[in-house]
# Entry
Amino acid sequence: MIYLEDCLEVIPRLENESIDFCCTSPPYNVDLGNNKYNNTPYSLYKDNKEHHEYINWLRGIFFVIYPKMKKGGRVCINIGDGMNGAVATSSDIIQFMSEIYIPMAHIIWDKNQVANRTAWGSFQSPSCPSYPCPFEHILIFAKEDTHLQHSGKTDLTKEEFIKWAYSIWKFTPETKAKEIGHPAPFPKELPYRCIKMNTYIGDTVFDPFMGSGTTGAVCKELKRNFIGCEIDKNYYDIAEKRIRQASMKKRLF
# Structure
């Protein structure tokens, strides 16, 4: 089920304790469109809130999600820090999520991009060197209990579990943003790993910031139920198409 609505309008209508896993990557608040690393803006969303406003906005969303999560259900948030790590968005999220959720994991996603860096700051000088962040955060929280309260069938292989049960993940970011039609899609490998590590086949996954539908497409491939929200009609249409195509394939990557 996908909704062309603001998630804050949809979430209150969802049944309490109906979601097994929330897997999402919210806007990073890095001013897409005016950002020298990404000059393509979102169509509707303004990605340049005051930091305290942005954090309070996210806090409100994940607090509204809380009663909709099953006991033991997990919330996975992929986020990057701003200003080469000077704006510690991940830390602020950990702080407010810890008010009601149980912190469960903090995974570092190594995007393996440092070889392409061009910003050195004061090159070969201690005057003002630059420290670009070739990584992002994957934060996982649980509701009430870190153990799932139900059993089910898993599709997680021994090899996958051994590789992924480690808090540094290394894979490349999405490189086909223009082809997909969204300025900031995350790679399928990210929700693929998170969903297999945290849910059983048939569980319900929610993404309040659906974007181009990556989480939904992966859910279809992995035989999970999916609920998603998106405010932009163009992105919604892209997501609907990708999810429909994924339902006809075993795996797209």
